[in-house]
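Researcher: Here's a chain I'd like modeled. Treat it as a single chain, no partners, no ligands.
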Amino acid sequence: MNYIIGSGFSGLTAAYALNKKGIKSVVISPADKIKKKNKSLLSLILKKDGEILNNSKTLTNIIEKINKSRVKNCKYLISHLDGGQSNFWGGVIGNINDYNLKNYTLKKKEFLKNSEAFKKFLKILRINSKNFFLKKNIKKSYINEKNYDVSKKSVSNLKKFLKKRGVTFSNHNFVKKIDIKNSIIEVYDFLEKKDKRIKFKNLFISCGPVETSKLILNSFKNIRKIYLKETQHFYALVKLKRDIKTRFFKIDLGKLNFSCQLYSLRNILALFFKNYFKNTEYKKKGRYFVAQCYLNQNYSGKIRISKKNNEINILGVKNRNFKQKKLIKEIDIFNKKNDCLEIKKIFFNQIGASNHLGASIPMTKNKFLPLGVDKYGKLNNTKNIFITDSSVLNEIDTSPITIFSLNNIFRMILDNKNHKN
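Model: Modeled as a single isolated chain. Structure tokens:
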């Protein structure tokens, strides 16, 4: 049987793509349930350091015993709820033309080969993908307004669809380790409170870059360190100089560039109440907004994940090329030159807080590189283990990465002729 680890967007995309090829699969995950989901989001904003687990206390205690983790100089959010990280993703849809594909082993044409089939998939998720594939001329400018979509997502709707198509969901299971030689996953069933060993034909790892890294370190003795790339996150207080049509911007300061998403007070309150990430209604000159900003990865930090003496060590590593004073100076110049917005104040966040993480096991043509995959996501030096999440991206772009990553997962499985019924 084919097993997929992870019930979030990545895992369900893998399940859908396999199902489309007539291949049966089992999605295995903790699928935990809690009532208050926004408490963890508040912790991510307020906490200085640490791994914030959006789980029940019972599951958190179990996971902390399995993966004893020490976290320093970084913070990030992990959800083992049913639906994984989709419980927090706000639904911002980027555009394929905004992504830098220079460091990928594929050309854009190959990325978009299955675009029509992918659009149908996104409809099941109730995601409007129109602007993601929209062709447009990109003008190099100091500031670019981006006409991104904000879509409500429905992971539960996709899960119901997959169940009807015969996809099996094995809940209450946490994968501890992979026995590569014998194609077996070692699982802890936290309902039955016992360990299990499950044989697999093919294994698709869709845990998210942090959990995927831990699983790889637990399973491969020759791999001792994994580095995750990110886009450094910071908040800004912004005042509009003129009326705007969108709340999404890309700001180019030469080598330093970042994306910017504006939130009114109503938007911020919506994070913790019913109307999640609604578009800004007040776009008038003179209005103040809180902006979420994501710095390009060349000047962002990294997260180093390593294992020693059965303990996972997670460390935020600052980028030596990045100087806060330099960015502030460039922003002062930007404020004087542009007619759109003024950045009044900046508040730098901790490494990892953007939760835009990945590019830790990238696509490569070098088959002997331990931490690399081929263009179909097959992990080097294995015959039947595939990585199907943002870990396999070659870059973490300042543009929203979720749909770009899902499109890549969809492509990897559909185009692989070795995946047969």
